[in-house]
Amino acid sequence: MAALPSQLKALTRLRCAIFQTSYNPTNIRTGAKYLRARLRGPSMLNYYPPEINLAQLARKYPELELVDEDEEQRLQDIEDRKKRGKGAPKKAKTKGPSHESITVPIIPDDTAFTADPPGLTISVDLESQLQHLQPAHLPLPRLAVQPTPLQGRPLPQKRSQTAAF
Fold it and tell me: Which H helix or E strand runs over 104?
């Protein structure tokens, strides 16, 4: 006499509960085989001998006067690069202008503008105001400011633009 599918499912569920196995009626891949397997990492770590660090040995036993040739070569290469001007730059003692933003006035203090026509264009030459900030061999920027119509309200007395150099 053949068993019904429902009886087989119940028997399988009971068997999994008794023998403490996972119940997987749809046979989905679970990876349980790999999760049950013994870990390989500790065996692989024990296979290779520990690495000997010459710098640590030289510090631990200074009476042996060990010389790390790789470190000596690295220091010699750094010294040679510095002689050619290719070494690392010196660290800054204080914060210079590269670490802060500079506020540059665009419109001179004594000039006041009002928004007469809606498309008023103000061209400002920053050359005189930025001369002390940039080296002479670099070109200075020209700035054209287009204000929006303010419906009869006057423009502010001063305008400043924050630029990071």
Answer: strand 101-105
